Automatic annotation (TrEMBL):
One of its GO terms (biological process) is methylation. GO terms for molecular function: methyltransferase activity. It comes from Emiliania huxleyi (strain CCMP1516). It comes from the Eukaryota. It holds the Pfam family Methyltransf_25. The keyword S-adenosyl-L-methionine applies. This is Methyltransferase domain-containing protein. Keywords: Methyltransferase, S-adenosyl-L-methionine, Transferase. Residues 135-230 form the Methyltransferase domain.
Length: 304
């Protein structure tokens, strides 16, 4: 019976988890009755007294219901955080930052429509010599890919949302960049071609979301794309931000605890403010704030 529960709970249901759990619980009832009668699939499994009493069968049924509901709830929550939430943002049907019913690419909460200032400053410092391969984790609509293409030999962008991938490819085409490409992929289950393939990685608000699914897997994801000695420029939310404004607020200790075990060594970590976006501007007006959200700008090197 436990094997059956595990098999069922391992599935990724398309319907809401509570509906699926109710339907599967009916199977649990049938299974419990079969155990009580000593007959499973028409095959007698015990003498005439059966394997348990009717009361015990009812208790088994309730336990199975609870297990199914909990496992399906967790499965559904992970799928939401890992994929569906981002499809919703890019497709417009999930826009909690807006008062209107649907969002647009122009009104994505983190999108300024320009390359991220922290990345521009990093490149202007001469951090890349033009011969490196670079990747953006969670490339979104592609503005940073075009910027990176001017400083690297080859650039790859990765995003889990098909709409983002199309938008990023359009940005590359418009700019006539020849050394950039974009892939649709799940960074928590990345294709082999990305593993250890890059000298530089840029991440603006992606790791902070991946770690909501799994801290260990998120660390492995961002570290795993780098060669030994490769560097990561990482932008995340900052726990010193007093307002809940979108970026996941992390302490410096949380950053280190998540990334050092993955083989990264911290080079620098400084507070900064995210670029202004339309969503952040509206937030500031509504709440009487004078600036975009506070974040961490950190630089890491892969040491193992």
């Amino acid at each position: 019976m436990n094997d059956l529960v595990g098999l069922i709970a391992a599935t990724q249901p398309a319907e809401p988890w509570d509906f699926v759990a109710d339907r599967l619980a009916a199977l649990a009832d049938a299974g419990a009755r079969a155990v009580a009668s000593g007959t499973i699939g028409g095959v007698r499994t015990a003498p005439s007294l059966g394997l348990c009493t009717a009361q015990e069968a009812e208790a088994i049924s309730e336990l199975l219901r609870a297990q199914l509901r909990e496992r399906l709830r967790k499965s559904d929550q992970e799928e939401w955080l890992r994929r569906r939430k981002w499809l919703g943002f890019y497709e417009g049907w999930h826009a909690p930052h807006l008062s209107c019913a649907r969002g647009t690419l122009e009104l994505l909460p983190w999108r300024s429509g320009k390359p991220t200032t922290a990345l521009v400053e990093h490149l202007a410092s001469g951090a890349l010599d033009g011969s490196v391969s670079a990747i953006e984790l969670g490339c979104g609509t592609g503005e940073n890919l075009v910027c990176l293409a001017g400083a690297a030999r080859a650039v790859t962008g990765v995003d889990i949302a098909p709409v983002a991938v199309v938008a990023a490819q359009e940005a590359i085409t418009r700019s006539r960049v020849q050394n950039a490409r974009v892939l649709e992929a799940d960074l928590l289950a990345p294709p082999d071609e990305l593993q250890g393939a890059f000298d530089f990685a840029f991440d603006c608000q992606t790791y902070q979301c991946l770690r909501q699914v799994s801290i260990v897997a998120a660390g492995a994801a961002v570290a795993g794309v780098l060669r030994l000695g490769g560097t990561l420029l990482l932008l995340t939310g900052n726990a010193d931000e007093p307002e809940e404004r979108g970026p996941v607020r992390l302490t410096r200790r949380e950053l280190e605890d998540g990334l050092v075990p993955a083989g990264l060594e911290l080079v620098s970590c400084d507070p900064f403010f995210f670029d202004e976006t339309e969503a952040y501007r509206v937030q500031a007006e509504e709440r009487g704030l004078a600036r975009p959200p506070r974040g961490w700008r950190s630089l890491w090197v892969r040491v193992r």
